[in-house]
Amino acid sequence: MKLIMAIIHDEDAFQIIDVLSEEGFKVTKLASTGGFLRAGNTTLICGVEDSRVNELVHIIEKKCKSRKQITSVNSAHLSTAENYVPYPVEVTVGGATIFVMDVAEFRRV
After folding, report:
1. Where are the extended beta strands (E) located within 1-109?
2. Domain that holds residue 33
3. Average per-residue pLDDT in the chain?
4. Total tally of structural domains belonging to the chain
5. Residue 45 and residue 77 in contact, taking contact as beta carbons nearer than 8 Å
6. For the whole prediction, is pTM greater than 0.85?
7. What confidence score (pLDDT) does residue 7 get?
8. Does residue 89 lie within any of the structural domains?
9. Predicted local confidence at residue 19, as pLDDT
10. Is 47 contained in some domain?
11. Residue 40: which of 71, 61, 79 has the closest Cα?
12. pLDDT tier for residue 81 given thresholds of 50, 70 and 90
């Protein structure tokens, strides 16, 4: 058994959860925040049999596409002189970061 943790863009979350549920995957959704843009993300947690890992990862890869977005960086960690961005910044958002971890023991009670 594997534990899959996928960090995805909030805009992709409900569509992916719907597809995963239709395919019989049990999914837990957690609200999370990214470190760079300090914007909302969604972290999905799913326990799956080894034989279904590729299927789950393929669904996430298919539905989570990267896209460009114009934003200003919220830079609380920068000094005051560096804190003012004189123009909007284009960043890539979306996509997914997927962790696949071995599970030593699984219990559903």
Report:
1. 2-9, 28-33, 40-48, 66-71, 89-94, 96-102
2. 2-65+94-102
3. 82
4. 1
5. no
6. no
7. 92
8. no
9. 95
10. yes
11. 71
12. low
- d(Cα 22, Cα 24) in Å, to the nearest integer? 5
Residue 41, token pair as written in the block: 């993300």
Q: How far is the C-alpha of 32 from the C-alpha of 38, rounded, in Å?
A: 10
CATH code, domain carrying 38: 3.30.70.120
In a domain, 73, yes or no: no
Q: What residue type is assigned to position 83 of the chain?
A: N
CA distances from 106 to 20, 50, 101 (A): 20, 13, 13
The pLDDT score that the predictor gives to residue 74 is 53
pLDDT value at residue 63: 84
Assigned domain for 23 exists: yes
User: How is 71-102 classified by DSSP, letter by letter?
Assistant: E----TTS-GGGS--SS-EEEEEE-EEEEEEE
Confidence of residue 6 (pLDDT cuts 50, 70, 90): very high
